[in-house]
Amino acid sequence: MDKVFLFDTTLRDGMQGTGINYTLKDKIEIARRLDETGLDYIEGGFPLANDKEAEFFRVLRREPLSRARLAAFGSTRKPGNKAQSDAHIQALLAAETPVVVIVGKAWQLHVETVLATTAQENLAMIDDSIRTLKKEGREVIFDLEHFFDGWKVHPEYSRSILKTAHDAGADWLVPCDTNGGTLVSEVDSVYKALAGTGWHLGAHFHNDLGVGVANSLCAVENGARQVQGTINGWGERCGNANLCSIAPSLSLKMSFSVGLDLGRLTELSRYVSEKANMIPDRRQPFVGEAAFSHKAGQHADVIQKAQDLQVPGFTRGGMMEHMDPSLVGNTRRILLSELAGKSTVAMKLGKFGTYDKNSKEVSELTRLLKEKESAGYEYEAAEASFELLVLKVLGRYERLFELDNYHLESYKTWDRDSQTVGRIFLTAQGKRSMGASVGVGPVGVLDKALRNALEASFPFVNSLTLTDFSVRVLNADQEASDSRVRVFISWTDGITTWDTVGVHENIIEASWQALVDSFEYYWLVIFQAR
Ligand SMILES: [Zn+2]
Fold first, then answer.
1. 257 and which of 1, 127, 238, 324 could share a cystine (Cβ 3.0–4.6 Å)?
2. Per-residue pLDDT tens over the stretch 316-329
3. Fold of 5-276
4. What separation in Å is there between the alpha carbon of 84 and the centre of ligand 1?
């Protein structure tokens, strides 16, 4: 099997994404996680940029990655300089990484207008920079900026850049689609034109046309053996090519070998989301929550029937899914909706044991579900609340605590902005405790006060993060006095994500239900299983 090297630039190009910011600690933790999951190269950043970047390399020098090769990123020397005395090149060497990525201009227009130098000097800069880094024993990856635009106007110059870099000793030549405007057909013809050169080619694509992954796969089909991209596809503008789609496609669909432990891919995707403080994209291919979801009814029925079917080429349930979700660490989800019949409910119960669709458990759960749904609960996007309902029906549910009372008070005075104070009295593990909090929003205050009251008995409560909160008014068309709201809350502990729901006329009480469900779900289902 041919090996394709995966080059992760989550911590360099990925940092250019809107809303993405990592602390030094985050960067180090992400690098370690990428390393453990089996990425071949990890680009850590630009050591000359600032102190945080330089410190990142210092930390990893003291405690190196175990498997992945760490790369520092920079550019070729400046026009007219010597690489030996160029600040960029010196900073790259000072980072003491085994791999150095240098970017050079591959579009004559940019050479002349941005660098304000000649095409010839650009070649000399590339040659000199690469030779200097090679002399110091580095593996050199040469990124060719705006390669595809340059190729359109002046393919011979593009070739001479590639040849110069190759002859200077670059280990990898990586054409970059820097502005993301290249089509798959163009990628196909460029890589075909370069076939037979014997050069080690890579691929670096952006997603401005929505084809970053397709372009990367096309490059590999035509001989590229290194793919640069980011986890979750985050990066400048519309993002970089998404490694979470590329890695499984290469391995499971195209029979290439990738070093990545694919079974941990979903976990890795969510871990990086958590660090970036971004809500995981449910619809992301392979690793999204919805990637292997099926609504009740026809689809679920087919999957049920396919469960035990052994057909070559199909995995369990493969008649409605393009692959077995467990191969990427994801899970199949059967969604509940008003359409849910007894056979869907029986299938949902499968996680907890084998229940016939005519069993009393299935009948009771179906009844309860209908009752809850008519009250406004919706479990399709709140699996955790649903599972608690299942535990109740099966007699396996246990309260985390007994509430005595909660009390919230919001106030605003002539000279101060609105504030909320909250108190909770409850009994957990036989001990009475009180929690209190002050803040602005009542739901946040309620959440903190509850954690405060529970933390002595259940320290895990402080490791859970609320990632999304949404509210919908259910019967806005009726008189305001009896309109109900439905609250959805998404949670994570950095590994698993789950969602809960609450419904009430009072938004605080609806939120309370979703909060309590979350802590109980974590305790009864996730925590106990670990
Ligand atoms: Zn890029």
1. 1
2. 555 678 999 999 99
3. TIM Barrel (3.20.20)
4. 26
